């Protein structure tokens, strides 16, 4: 999942970005509102974390602009402003959640995961499709109730497909949302990862969990349960 942090305090932004990368996110960083607005407009984002007191375009104006332009990914405000009036203003501007600094990482992680689930139409932290279950809390996967060992990147690909279960996801979309840098992006590598996932999810060839739609991309074909 690709996440944007818009935060002018450099140390906090860098620490937050490093931690979220450890959590499996691809992270874009902006140190002011103007850069954040440009990235929010043009980067293929799944989620944004925005401070309010930003140089350049202020946080509320940034959020209003993105919403007015039709960007619908979840936005979480992370700010030192803790008055109820500020919270109301942020939510009415178009934010989906509001966290006051200082914050606990566990709470922020839970809120970010909840926003991603809701954006994909999921309510429960365990995403279940047929016999496949992915727990977003501890990043574990079970198949027919048995633990399934995946690499970190295999998990990220599967999580993206499960968040978008039933939808066609192009190779380009997967690459843009799951790779940090342009020089890492290789659609051929994505084909290898998909092939490995198929072998692990369907060793006997009866489940057929991931469909390939020629010229369009991939689809997790298991029904949501």
UniProtKB/TrEMBL annotation:
Record's keyword annotation contains Phosphoprotein: yes
Assigned keywords, A-Z = DNA-binding, Phosphoprotein, Transcription, Transcription regulation, Two-component regulatory system
Gene3D superfamilies named in the record: 3.40.50.2300, 6.10.250.690, Winged helix-like DNA-binding domain superfamily/Winged helix DNA-binding domain
Tell whether Phosphoprotein is among the UniProt keywords.
Answer: yes
Q: Which InterPro entries match?
A: CheY-like_superfamily, OmpR/PhoB-type_DNA-bd, Sig_transdc_resp-reg_receiver, WalR-like, WH-like_DNA-bd_sf
Q: Which Pfam families match?
A: Response_reg, Trans_reg_C
Its cellular-component GO annotations read: cytosol; protein-DNA complex
Q: Which residues form the OmpR/PhoB-type domain?
A: 124-222
All residue ranges annotated as the Response regulatory domain in the record: 2-116
4-aspartylphosphate modification sites?
51
Q: Do you know which PANTHER family this protein is assigned to?
A: REGULATOR OF RPOS (PTHR48111), TRANSCRIPTIONAL REGULATORY PROTEIN PHOP (PTHR48111:SF71)
* Name recorded for this polypeptide: DNA-binding response regulator
Task: Specify the species.
Answer: Sediminicurvatus halobius
